[in-house]
Structure formats: C-alpha cells, structure tokens
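> forwarded from #structure-qc
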C-alpha cells in the first residue's frame, strides 16, 4: 500500500511539474476561465486528453512512435502554423480595443469554437506528446508493476491543475473589467502563441 501511495505521489508531482508552465494550452484555459466561456468543457477536454496521452505513454506507445520521427515533425509544423494564426488574432484584439472581451458568461462565446480550439491546442502541440507520452511514459516504466499507479497520479495532477486554472481564473474577473486589462491579457496570449509557434516550426 505504501509503495502504491509513493508511486501515485511521484506521478502527481512529476505530472504537475510538467503541466505548470506558461504555454499555449494553459494560456487558452486561463482566457476561457476569465471569460467564463465553456470552462467545464475546456477543462474536461484538457484533463481527458492528458489522461489518454499518459495512458498511451505508460502502455509503451512512446517507444513505437519514436520509430517514425517524421510524424512529430509534421505535427510540429501544423501546430506551429495554428499557434501563429491564433497569436495574430490575439494581437489584433490588442490593436482593436473595440473588440475587447467581457467576462459575461458562457453565452459570450461559441462553445463549438472553444472545443475545436482546445482540441487543436492539445493534440497539435508536439510538446504535449514529449511530456506525456515519452517522458512520463519512460518514468512510469521505471516503476515496473506500479507504472499504472504512477500514471494515475500524473493524470490526477492534470485534473487538479486544469480545474484550478479554469475555475480559479474567475477570481480575476474584477481586475479584468476594464478594456485595458483585457488588452494586456490578450497581449500576453499573443506573445506566448507567436513565440511557441515560431519555436515549433523552427524545431521541426
């Protein structure tokens, strides 16, 4: 029992250390949370996607995918272009204050658009595969029979983080009531997306 708890805690800590970083996915979840736009859906997609990818890594798929490095390169290019486009749109909102956002409930945006964007942010990001499938998968393999327990801990970390990020962002609503504050947020999102997009394409 103690070994299982240790493996779970190790997986939780490792997963959290990989997830808690400024990136395209986190920036998108934060923005949706502040807007209160399809938050539960976005959080669910991110957490479930991570759980699936972690399971694939623990199951050994990472070792198989390494045999086809061209697949990751292709995903990197497509994901990079997507992030650049999203960054340009965020930058456009910064330059056009009249198109500012307001935290006025889920009806403020399109749930379908939020779902598609979230899926693209997650599944077109090679870093997600490197962190979950390859890195967590290899670390889980070192746990032997407890590798699935380690993976469970990592999946729980993902659920906790995205839930806290998505729903905790609502606390920022009062500070982002002014259009200028939204421009700052969109500016940070734009810079993050553009930098990540360029790095993905350059590294592919």
């Amino acid at each position: 029992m103690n070994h299982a708890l240790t493996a779970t805690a190790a997986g939780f800590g490792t997963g959290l250390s990989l997830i808690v970083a400024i990136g395209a996915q986190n920036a998108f979840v934060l923005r949706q949370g502040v807007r209160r736009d399809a938050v539960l859906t976005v959080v669910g997609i991110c957490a479930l996607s991570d759980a699936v990818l972690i399971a694939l890594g623990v199951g050994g798929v990472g070792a198989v995918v390494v045999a086809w490095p061209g697949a990751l390169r292709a995903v990197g290019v497509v994901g990079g272009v997507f992030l650049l486009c999203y960054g340009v749109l965020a930058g456009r909102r910064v330059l056009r204050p009249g198109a500012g956002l307001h935290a006025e409930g889920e009806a403020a945006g399109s749930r379908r658009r939020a779902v598609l964007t979230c899926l693209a942010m997650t599944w077109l990001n090679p870093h997600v595969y490197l962190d979950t499938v390859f890195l967590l998968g290899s670390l889980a393999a070192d746990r032997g029979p407890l590798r699935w327990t380690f993976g469970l801990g990592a999946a729980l970390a993902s659920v906790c983080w995205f839930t806290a990020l998505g729903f905790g962002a609502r606390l920022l609503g009062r500070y982002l009531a002014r259009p200028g504050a939204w421009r700052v947020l969109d500016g940070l999102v734009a810079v993050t997306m553009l930098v990540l997009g360029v790095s993905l394409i350059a590294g592919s």
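QC bot note: Residues 99-108 have pLDDT under 50 and may be disordered. The chain has nine helices and no strands.
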